[in-house]
Amino acid sequence: MLDLSRNAVMRPEAIAAYLRRAALMGYDTLWLYLEDTYEVPGEPMVGYARGAYSEQELRAIDDQAHRLGIEVVPCVQTLGHFEQILQWPRFWPLRDTERVLLAEAAEGYELLERLLDTVRRCFRSTRVHIGMDEAHGVGTGGYLRRFGERPPFEILSAHLGNVLELCHGLRPMIWSDMYFRLGSATGHYYDPDTVIPSWVRVPDGVDLVYWDYEHGDQAFYEDWIDRHRDSLGGLPVFAASGWTHHRMWAALPKALATLEPGLAAARERGVREVAMTLWGNDGTECDYFSALPAVQAFADLAYGARPGPGSFAGSCDATLETWMAAAELDFLPGSGDPVRWRGNPGKWLLWHDPVLGFLASDLPDWLPGHYRDLSARLRAEKPGDERLDFPAALAGVLADKCALHLGDLSVLDRLESGVRALRALHRARWLADRKPYGWDVLDRRYGGLLARLDTLREYGPVAFEARDPYAPEGAIAQCLTHARVASASFIN
Fold first, then answer.
1. Which domains, from first to last, does the chain contain?
2. The whole model's pTM is what?
3. How confident is the model over 65-88, as pLDDT tens digits?
4. What number of CA atoms fall less than 13 Å from residue 451's CA on the CB side?
């Protein structure tokens, strides 16, 4: 699955390049995650200024996949993750919350029917993913004011039934997490004490997708698959992750450490369909091609083989060892079990404010050396290794950025030059693979960093008593967004 809704919309020719590699690996299905990034007749504000695919582009993607023996399944949203559409005044009356569509509103179902009719026309597949995940706060906003209080389980069940009537011959699937969240006293997806009421059943003809990107214990996956069967009435599709979200390069060690027990559990429990997801949370700064080692390993394991450098070289003409090494942008010496490690220092240290450095009080003094050594090791050996130029350049910049945070102002000139060169390299890669829409977000991030470096040059650092709010693990072990590290001020 390719997430094409978090700021970056891949060009059809880049998707075709991905498909060719996936076909060599043995994949037979591609899910396209499209929240609002497709044109809908009569709805010009859907995908407005976001790089929405035309129907012609979607058909071209489907045609290319079909030639390779791959089915393309559109993944849309019908409840949560609606913020890109609901931001516009035309759709304000359809808000439950800023991110959740107003269930039970007739005009909302008219919109959903237009969305579903569009993807039905563009793809050969008779399946559709209708989302419905992470609908946090459902029934608490516009719904409460318009229809009154109703238990969320009832809202979810009624809404699913209404959406089914709009599928018109398409077999839908949904993410299953909301059933577990609503059954939990804490709202936690993986709460072992969650209780799904006995009357709740997923309608016949709807497939559940159990997504789990976190666990290294096969027994946990088996338990959660059993809960789908026992509480919701059927075996789910299982979805793992290539861990491209919230970072600059795929977290390959974590992906490999979680997908292997997940696939083993799926096989043990008789699950018949599995998927690998590539998400782009917080701006899709990550190159999806960086996840290809995990995509290959997932296919190897699904076919009963052991992952290794030979299969990756065969499908991608690239060097597995070096691509794995690039993940050391985030996986630092001593980071321990990759299942438990969530840190993304390769991202957040780049964007962290250089003037205040409010999260840098406890950075280890060996960090500049780690990144300098990594930059030297990330050199292309095969034709498919050319994408390593970005993590190599990023590691070089991070070496100087960490040195700056540790008090070495002598690196400032080199750091500024490095950031400018990194931006140019990142932009070239983005525009080669993706539409120009969304790069504005990255321009502002790079521009903001350069502006703060200029302020640092003119006025020097600000003296204050720095703390590490993430002790005892430290900020270095956290997965942090750009907004969280660019400023200590929360601005909405």
1. 2-317 (3.20.20.80), 344-486 (1.20.120.670)
2. 0.97
3. 999 999 999 999 999 999 999 999
4. 7
